[in-house]
Specification:
123 residues, Nuclear Transport Factor 2, Chain: A, 25% helix
């Protein structure tokens, strides 16, 4: 089983792989029974995640990971995503691990910002 520090590194590696459009690395990090939930869809399985949720990350300028808190097999990460067009948003994601694999991610959306101001999010 991975130590808490290793789980934080797995999360950092996932963010880096997503930014690099490295789908193979992301797929390898997910358990076969992986589930993904957001306010737009709940308990999405691994094939559906890659079919419907995975998209080219060329629009992202950078991720600013603010904190990763690991407690056993669970972890929270809060980050700010800055798009190349200057818009940004802040999310928190809840991770559950099965050994060194991510078995679940629940995403909690935060507000969008542009030029220091809140921007209403469209669905």
């Amino acid at each position: 089983m991975a130590a808490a520090g290793n789980r934080a590194e797995i999360i950092r590696s996932l963010f880096a792989a997503y930014l690099a459009n490295d789908r193979a690395s992301v797929e390898a990090a997910f358990a076969e029974d992986f589930r993904f939930s957001t306010p737009y869809g709940e308990n999405i399985d691994k094939p559906r995640y890659f079919a419907e949720c995975w998209r080219d990350s060329g629009w992202i300028g950078r991720h600013e990971i603010e904190r990763i808190m690991v407690d056993g097999v669970e972890a929270f990460v809060t980050y700010r995503c800055v798009a190349k067009d200057g818009k940004s948003f802040r999310n928190t994601e809840f991770f559950v691990f099965d050994g060194d694999k991510v078995s679940r991610i629940d995403v909690y959306f935060g507000p969008s910002h542009q030029d220091g101001e809140l921007v209403r999010q469209e669905r």
